[in-house]
């Protein structure tokens, strides 16, 4: 079975706040946003006829020194699966999640949310993330699909 490499570009808007005194009303409105408009980080990874996976948020817990990833996943297959994570690479740091318990999804499931975390401080930003994901048959533990999601952050200055 061939590992599926999925390259994802995450575009993050930035603003030159040193020029705030010259911003137009429209620029202020974009920067402030709508009250319901803050969706945070959402990064679609895959959505095909078998599997759906999306990063729904990334946040830091300063007390535990963990970087949390919120995921939404859906099993579209007619059999139960386990989502098993391998190595994660965040910039130059590598984290092995292969010893952690897989996340179980029943066959033809609804979209379900869950979290994974790695030890990392809030002061460490990220530019690239690589996440290895294996889909396993829940009964036989046989590999169904193997992914490597390569997420590159690109900063775009809006104004």
UniProtKB/TrEMBL annotation:
It comes from the Bacteria. This is Uncharacterized protein. It comes from Sporosarcina oncorhynchi. The lineage of its organism: Bacteria, Bacillati, Bacillota, Bacilli, Bacillales.
């Amino acid at each position: 079975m061939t590992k599926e490499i999925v390259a994802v570009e995450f575009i993050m808007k930035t603003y030159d706040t040193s020029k705030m005194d010259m911003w137009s009303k429209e620029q202020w409105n974009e920067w402030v946003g709508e009250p319901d408009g803050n969706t945070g980080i959402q990064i679609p990874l895959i959505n095909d006829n078998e599997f759906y996976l999306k990063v729904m948020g990334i946040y830091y817990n300063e007390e535990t020194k963990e970087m949390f990833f919120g995921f939404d996943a859906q099993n579209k297959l007619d059999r139960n699966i386990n989502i098993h994570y391998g190595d994660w690479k965040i910039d130059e740091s590598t984290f092995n999640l292969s010893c952690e318990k897989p996340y179980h999804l029943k066959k033809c499931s609804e979209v379900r949310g869950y979290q994974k975390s790695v030890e990392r401080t809030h002061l460490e930003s990220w530019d690239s993330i690589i996440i290895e994901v294996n889909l396993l048959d829940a009964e036989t533990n046989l590999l169904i699909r193997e992914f490597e999601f390569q997420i590159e952050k690109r900063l775009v200055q809006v104004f």
